[in-house]
Amino acid sequence: MGVAVIKLKNPPVNSLSLEVLTEFVISLEKLENDKTFRGVIVTSDCPGIFSAGLDLTEMCGKSQAHYAEYWRAVQELWLRLYLSNLVLIAAINGVSPAGGCLMSLTCDYRVLADNPKYNMGLNETLLGIVAPSWFKDTLVNTVGHRTAERALQLGLLFPPAEALRVGMVDQVVPEDQVHSTALSVMAQWLAVPDHARQLTKNLMRKPTADRLVKQRDADIQYFLRFISRDSIQKSLRVYLDKLRQKKG
Ligand SMILES: CC/C=C\C/C=C\CCC/C=C/CC(=O)SCCNC(=O)CCNC(=O)[C@H](O)C(C)(C)COP(=O)(O)OP(=O)(O)OC[C@H]1O[C@@H](n2cnc3c(N)ncnc32)[C@H](O)[C@@H]1OP(=O)(O)O
């Protein structure tokens, strides 16, 4: 039925490095241009981890030019996913904080494996950073304003039952059924004529995407100013050190 699977593979935690973001955009573009494909299942090849989100090492101790290139790549992937003409289904087979969660929120439907360790949410505030307005918009469009307001301020990571309750995911299923469920949901979405579904998706999503498109450069400048602050760099270093020391 013309369904591709994109399996994220950047061990150990599928962090969204510049290289991963760039390759993801290229793969998506190829699938968009190949009319034999109508749908994509986005999943992970790293056991227990869907994606650890943006690669913190790309945002820490690097040059301004690097930050700008990285942020443009983050914007690009979000825009491509959010406005994709393909049916996108996230088969979430692991934990998905921050950018990992955001990636799944750009999909049309989310199936999450029922494992209490597989938390998801936009936890940026817990790192001492702030989810940009388009991250916030994506969450609001999924779970509504009040739930998003509380989740964003507290940096909440929801376990599966809670994620389902607030509407962050559409289905929670046993871990060994995530892929098969994604496939049967895909069949249902592909039963709708493409042109009607695509125009409707665009109607729903374009106003949100346009807000970023209209101010992409300003958003990059804002990111540069924010991420270059000493206090933010310090927060990120402390957070990364904590992650590294967990093992020791
Ligand atoms: C209005 C404001 C406007 C603009 C503001 C601008 C910008 C700010 C917004 C930027 C947005 C950021 C969104 C993000 O996505 S930030 C990333 C958030 N991610 C996390 O908090 C997840 C962190 N990771 C974890 O919690 C765990 O690693 C995880 C549960 C995923 C897996 O745990 P596990 O025990 O299996 O592995 P670890 O031992 O913890 O990790 C293994 C190694 O991987 C490194 N690691 C983990 N996560 C990341 C990451 N996100 N980036 C880079 N590296 C990561 C970890 O340090 C370990 O490294 P080593 O010790 O092996 O060197």
TrEMBL record:
The record, for InterPro entries, names: ClpP/crotonase-like_dom_sf, Enoyl-CoA_hyd/isom_CS, Enoyl-CoA_hydra/iso
Q: What is the lineage of its organism?
A: Eukaryota, Metazoa, Chordata, Craniata, Vertebrata
For this UniProt record, the keywords arranged alphabetically read as follows:
Acetylation, Fatty acid metabolism, Isomerase, Lipid metabolism, Mitochondrion, Transit peptide
What's the subunit arrangement here? Homotrimer.
Q: Name one GO molecular function term.
A: delta(3)-delta(2)-enoyl-CoA isomerase activity
Q: Which GO terms describe its cellular component?
A: mitochondrial matrix
The chemistry this enzyme catalyses reads: (2E)-tetradecenoyl-CoA = (3Z)-tetradecenoyl-CoA; a (3E)-enoyl-CoA = a 4-saturated (2E)-enoyl-CoA; (3Z)-octenoyl-CoA = (2E)-octenoyl-CoA; (3Z)-dodecenoyl-CoA = (2E)-dodecenoyl-CoA
Pathway(s): Lipid metabolism; fatty acid beta-oxidation
Q: Which PANTHER family match?
A: ENOYL-COA DELTA ISOMERASE 1, MITOCHONDRIAL, ENOYL-COA HYDRATASE-RELATED
By sequence similarity, the record places it as follows:
Belongs to the enoyl-CoA hydratase/isomerase family.
EC numbers on record: 5.3.3.8
List localization entries. Mitochondrion matrix
Q: Which gene encodes it?
A: ECI1
- Tell me the protein's name: Enoyl-CoA delta isomerase 1, mitochondrial
Tell me the Gene Ontology biological-process terms attached to this UniProt entry.
fatty acid beta-oxidation
Q: What does this gene product do?
A: Key enzyme of fatty acid beta-oxidation. Able to isomerize both 3-cis (3Z) and 3-trans (3E) double bonds into the 2-trans (2E) form in a range of enoyl-CoA species, with a preference for (3Z)-enoyl-CoAs over (3E)-enoyl-CoAs. The catalytic efficiency of this enzyme is not affected by the fatty acyl chain length.
